[in-house]
């Protein structure tokens, strides 16, 4: 089947069929006639031919650090909720937290292999900045702020600052913090800075040094909790950069017969499912990951479809989820 045969069977011109497949204007009568033929024949226009004609692939490259992550999964869901109705397809690349792979995929997606790129990176090196600057297709960064690039990110600093203040207001004044790697500006550097500034501002500056660095896993959170307590055995609260680290902390405390929250209060960040099913449920921070994906892809589509130029940054807020407060409110 080709466009000429579709036009003959529908009793319309080739131009009408072309406008039908490219969302151009045609009368409802002609549109219905073409639709019936398309359904009866199962005809699909050639993607390669459309790409050659329009120089658009209708494909968006999405680069993520891993797929076994609640936050990344929610960002991807947000992206798809916008891409699918708009007739775009997603080409997903997973880097397994390897900066070299991020560079490889950025280069592979360049040269009009995709119309644009959404990058959910964790670490930005000088090579990233140089490659991003030289890309021939537009790119939007999701989840991190990078000066000079369009991006959608969260207020990680104030989220952790407020979370720390909550612990201090509860009378927990011997705190420790389990951080992510500081090269990760959002989850690592900004969240740790929020903790350190909060204790400094509250007059507990000595707590700022009570930090250890973990990887993004329960096992690492478990090990680093032991390290924290070995160095500062008087802890009465542990704040973590992620919910998975906090779940590991809970497991360590349970294994070592340390009661939670009576002896040590624990908090994570991310409002993942694990925070709600943990026992006791974790205090956590809700970041709006689906919204991040939606706004990032809409920003990219504006750049593609309307030729919008200039650097845009969107910073999203957060919400502290405190199961203790919810339980207290529910009591008669």
In short:
The chain is α/β, with parallel strands linked by helices and 332 residues long. The chain is built from 14 helices and twelve strands.
Q: How would you sum up this structure, described in words?
A:
The protein has 332 residues and is α/β, with parallel strands linked by helices. 48% of the residues lie in helices and 16% in strands. It has 14 helices and twelve strands. It has helices at 3-10, 14-21, 28-41, 47-54, 70-83, 99-109, 126-134, 156-169, 185-201, 218-231, 243-255, 273-277, 289-305, 323-330; strands at residues 59-64, 89-94, 116-119, 139-142, 150-154, 175-179, 211-213, 237-240, 265-267, 284-287, 313-316, 318-321. Helix 1 crosses helix 2 (14-21), helix 1 crosses helix 3 (28-41) and helix 8 (156-169) runs parallel beside helix 9.
């Amino acid at each position: 089947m080709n466009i000429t045969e579709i036009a003959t069977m529908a009793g319309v011109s080739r131009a009408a069929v072309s406008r039908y497949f490219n969302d151009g204007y045609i009368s409802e009568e002609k549109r219905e006639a073409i639709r019936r033929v398309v359904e009866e024949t199962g005809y699909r226009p050639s993607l390669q031919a459309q790409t050659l004609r329009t120089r658009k692939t209708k494909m968006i490259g999405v680069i993520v650090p891993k797929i076994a992550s609640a936050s990344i999964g929610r960002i991807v869901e947000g992206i798809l909720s916008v891409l699918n109705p708009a007739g775009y397809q997603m080409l997903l690349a997973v880097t397994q937290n390897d900066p070299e792979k991020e560079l490889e995929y950025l280069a592979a997606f360049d040269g009009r292999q995709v119309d644009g790129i959404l990058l959910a990176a964790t670490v930005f090196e000088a090579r990233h900045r140089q490659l991003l600057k030289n890309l021939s297709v537009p790119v939007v960064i999701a989840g991190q702020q990078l000066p000079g690039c369009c991006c959608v990110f969260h207020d990680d600093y104030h989220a952790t600052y407020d979370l720390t203040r909550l612990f201090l207001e509860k009378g927990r004044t011997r705190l420790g913090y389990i951080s992510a790697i500081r090269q990760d500006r959002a989850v690592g550097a900004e969240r740790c800075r929020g903790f350190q500034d909060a204790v400094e501002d509250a007059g507990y500056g000595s707590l700022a040094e009570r930090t250890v660095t973990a990887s993004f896993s329960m096992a690492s959170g478990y090990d680093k909790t032991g390290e924290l307590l070995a160095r500062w055995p008087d802890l009465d609260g542990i704040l973590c950069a992620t919910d998975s680290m906090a779940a590991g902390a809970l497991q360590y405390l349970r294994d070592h017969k340390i009661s939670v929250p009576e002896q040590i209060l624990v908090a994570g960040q991310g409002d993942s499912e694990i925070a709600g099913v943990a026992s006791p449920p974790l205090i956590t921070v809700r970041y709006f990951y689906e919204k991040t994906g939606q706004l990032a892809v809409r920003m990219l589509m504006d750049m593609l479809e309307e030729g919008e130029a200039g650097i845009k940054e969107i910073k999203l807020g957060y919400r502290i989820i405190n199961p203790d407060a919810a339980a207290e409110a529910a009591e008669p």
